[in-house]
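Deliverable D4.2, example record:
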Amino acid sequence: MSKNNKSLIIKKINFLIDFAISESKNTDFKNPYIYNYIKIAFRLAKKINYRIPSNIHMKVCKNCYAIRNLDNTKYKIESKIINKTKKRYLKLHCLSCDYIKKINITKEKSI
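Output generated by the structure prediction step:
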């Protein structure tokens, strides 16, 4: 696959995800195909071996392709001490599919 084709597919992936997020924010009309747009974008990314940016993974559940908002997601900051190092995580709990994503907030620090 040439670089030109890959860049076009990356633009298509970003467009599909941005379009789905903007459609979900629209309160007048709820598009029933929002999940399909995100699913297609994730499948295209997998085909060309493209890593979707972390800011998009914060907005979309990779298990059920739901767009995260305050209605369907719980946010929690959790800290643990492992081997005398304090680690902090942001836990994103999707209420539609019960998938939990943990994101490391801080780098390792000694106590």
